[in-house]
Each structure stands twice: as C-alpha cells, then as structure tokens.
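#lab-general

N.A. 3:47 PM
ok so I finally got the sequence cleaned up, no stray characters, all 393 residues accounted for. can someone with queue access submit it? mine expired

B.Y. 3:52 PM
send it over

N.A. 3:53 PM
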Amino acid sequence: MIRLFINGLAASAGGGITYLRNVIPHLSRRVDAKTTVLLSPAVRAELGKLPNVSIIEISGNSGAFLRFIREQTALPKLIRTSGAEVLISAGNFALWNCPVPQILLSRNALYTSDDFLRDLRARKDYRIWADTLVKGWLARRSLGVADMTVAPTGAFAQELARRTGRKVLTVHHGFDFDAFTSDGAPLPAAAQDQIDKAKDDLRLLFVSHYNYYRNFETLFRALPILIDRLAGKKVKLFLTCRLSSNENPGSYRAEMASSLVNSLRSSDSIVELGTIPYHSLHHLYRACHAYVTPAYAESFAHPLIEAMSSGLPVVASDLPVHREICRDAGVYFARFSPDALAERVMQVYESPELAGKLSSKGFERARDFSWSKHVEQLLILAQELVSSDRKPE
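B.Y. 4:20 PM
back already:
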C-alpha cells in the first residue's frame, strides 16, 4: 500500500481539469493506494464521493502567484498530516521544501514556447509576457527541485530536457472511451439546432476556449480560402467558445479575433457554440466531418484523442506533439499558414478514401491511450521513489 498526496489546486480549466477528472477516479479504484488530493471547490464538486480518496478543498481563486506562495507554506504540514509517502505536484511547479519524495507533472508548453512569447510581443500584451517569463523560470527551476519530472508526451519531455538539461520521463495521458461516451445526455438544444441547420454543409470542429496559443487567427484566415475553393458548398466552423474576452478563462483578449471574423459571422461560416458540457461532447464530434487544430504550442491535446475516437479525420498543425499523438491518423500543415491549412482540409474533403483511412487509423490510435495505464505507470514511479535511498539522476 502506497500513500500519495496530489496537489491539484492549479487545475482551473482545460487539460488540468480533464486530467484530475480522469485520474482521481482511477486511483480511487486501486486497492494498493490511498490518495489525498488538494483541490479547488469547483473541481471538488465534479468528483463526488470516492473510496480510498481524501479530498482537501482550498479556494484557488487568488491568482497563480499567491496560490504558489500559499502552497509553499501550507503544503508541507498538510502532507505530513496525511501520512503521504510521495507528493505528485500536478501544476507545473514543485514544492521547494517537500517533506517526502516528489513527482512533478510538467504539462504547460507555454513556458518553453518561443512562438508564444513572440505572439505576446506582437499583440503588445506585455502583462502576460512578463507573467509567462516569471512562471517559466519557476517551472524550469522546479525540475531541479523535484525528484522526478514527468511529461505527457515524449516530444514535450525532449523540449523540457533541452531547455533545462534535466532528465524528464514520459507518461502519456490517457483516454477512456466508455467514460467519454457513457452519458446519453444530448447536446444542449441550442447547439443541436445549429448542427441541424448545417446538415448540408462541410462541418469543421475546433474544441478549445479562446486563447492565443491555439492560434485561432490562422484558422479564421483559412476559412475564406476554403469558401472560395468549395465553389458554392457552405462550410461551418463550430467553436466551443465565444469570441469575447470575458467569456473565456485567463486574461486573453479576444477582440482582434472577433473583429477578424465579423464577415464570416455574417455568412454563418463560424458558429460560436460556447462551452459544451463534457459529458455530451461526443455528440458534437460525431456531428462533424473533420477536426481542425492550428495550435502552435501544445504538450498533449486531449481533443485530438476525443476526435479520433469519434471517427473524425484530424487536420493538425505540424507540431511534434501532434504527430506523436495522431501518427498517421492525421494530416499536417505549417502552423502559421492559412493556405496550407485550407489545402489539407480540401484534401480530406475531396478524397473519401483519405477521410476513411484517417478515420480508421484514428480509431486504432485512440485505443493506445489509457488512464488505467497512466495511473499504473505513476504508481510504479512513486513506488520506485519510496524504495530508493537517493534521488534519480
């Protein structure tokens, strides 16, 4: 029996919540582990009561730096009180004065992305730029503090190792097809109505809240090219967000993107669905013809696996992470090229044979990812730390 303490306080949106939503229930089913988890109340509310898991709630709304300071001061006592033998830090930053061996889960690609820093300077968003530099420094220093660092893909592990000179292990994040599709609840009525209206159109999907690094603007610039090439057939791009700054997590300003798509809105080529409940997302994937992501920074990208498991061909920016996740279940384009993006979409649209091949390969590839396998690998690493007399090199 091993006792774990997971610091999940930093999870507030996107991949962080997806991670905890899947990993904690799997840990609760392990008879060889007892787990204490530190969470914000919002994430705690999603999980309900779970066997073998103790949950500590602390409000996480005070901002990243105040949260970091509070974690550094309060966590050691909580860890000792819990009786934990290993800390799993799930929020990119290590605990400096950790009373037990520590596994750092590093999954934020922005802290190593030169493209992101250039983008912020081009947008003159110097507040986020400075914030990223400081957090990036802390994240890189954290690799030297933790006993082990784990990345969700080999590509991101290599990038971290290159930037820090530290050893970084790879443990792929997982996917649970049955859990993803088990809820029979339909799409919200307004979203289903939009899908029904587009039944004769080419339907593209991009699942993300608005931020800069998902590179929405390249996708928006590709749409007029697609519209011209489709010669009369309509295209609909469905977004699971709204292009409004106050309707997305973080401090990203959506006004430039919103202005860019005004003409596309008037032609109904872009449909801003807003947030879709996770339990009904599988209906949205299956209602579309292709999944498109132009992201220029990524450490894993759960929607790619969700799309593949739903039979969607994937059109993705040419990142090492995207190629690692999708392999030959996707086609790839230069990440800042609207023309290349449109060309790849047209290839899939004009070739049912290619679309069918991508769909089939996607089904196969999605089965390679397992949350159960992920948890098993984490427990093996934790046990190695407990039984070792020294830190790994």
